[in-house]
Structure formats: C-alpha cells, structure tokens
TrEMBL record:
One of its GO terms (cellular component) is plasma membrane. It is a multi-pass membrane protein. It is found in: Cell membrane. It comes from Vagococcus teuberi. The gene is plsY. The keyword Calcium does not apply. The keyword Lipid metabolism applies. This is Glycerol-3-phosphate acyltransferase.
Amino acid sequence: MLGSIQSGVWIGKIFYHKDIREFGSGNTGTTNTFRVLGKRAGTAVLFMDILKGTVATSLPMWFGLSIDPLWFGVAAILGHTFPIFGHFKGGKAVATSAGMLLAYSPTFFIYSGSLFVLFLFLTSTVSLASMISAIIITISTIILPIYAPFVLAEQNWLLTTLAVAITLFIIVRHKDNIKRIKSGTESKINFGLRKTKNR
C-alpha cells in the first residue's frame, strides 16, 4: 500500500494539473518528474519515494515483529513498480530501493548514494548511473562485511539475494533506456561543467 502511493502522479495532478504519465517517458517515478515538472517537483517526489521504502522497512522494527525488515522493503518496492492505484504501472524502483537501504543500514545507504552520485557525475545519465550503481552495490553486500564492516556490519544473504533480484529488475525496467544509450539518444544532465547533449 505504501509503495503504491504514486508521488509523481499526485504532485503533478494537484500542483501542476498535469498527468506525468502522458509526458516524457510516461514513467511515474523521480526521473520523469524532473523532466516534466522540474526540479522542485522532482526533488519532492525523490524524497517521497525514498520515504516509502524507509517507512515500510522500519515497520517490523517499530512494532517488534520477528521478521527480517527487508521483506517489508521488498513489498514497498513491488508496490512502487506495480501500484494498485495505477493499473500496476509505476516507477523503476531505484528511489524506493534506496529508502529500504536507509532503514536497514544508514551507513550503507550513504555509501550506495555516494556511488550513484559519482556515476551520475561521470556519465551524466540517470539510467546508466542507476544500473552501474546497482551492480556495484550488489557486489558490495558480499565484500563490505569482510573488508569494511563499519559500512555494512554483517553479512546478510537475504540482502545479497534481494540486491541481485532488484539489480536484474532495474536493468529489465531500463531496457528502453539501454536502447537509447546505445543509439546515443538517452537524455543527459548538464552539470554546467561540461557540454552534454540533451535530447
């Protein structure tokens, strides 16, 4: 239910009188909101989508339930991607997955977010940065508990398994973006430090 809250659609309709599903990529997530409605709306949707994953993952800890909180995070991710309020057509799960990590391990969330920002700066492409980051984050769930436990304290094979599944899911959801990357037509962000093509 939390994951199914379509932040981009709601903000677009209430404050901008636009349905973002009818513009840009037609996606309901953060990236398309930035493209269609601008930075203010995009930032709001980003935080709301992250919050969905964080709140959902925190529920078993708040109520003292003896279940791995990651399962609740996965439920929010599935709700975000296949929202019951939006004919099961939603976002690509990146922000809500980040929210799950924030609740599970704040230090790992900061590490993962830093990776995304780094690759976003290097590639200027949100989709490519998301996929590369997801792959490295998955590998990190195995390596960090051994070599950098201050970032991720313990090995959790459920986290690794979910990371693999989410990474594959993110890549599949970005299949159209991959085609545009190969053809050189994928939208890029101009940070003002170098010239990038915006199409």
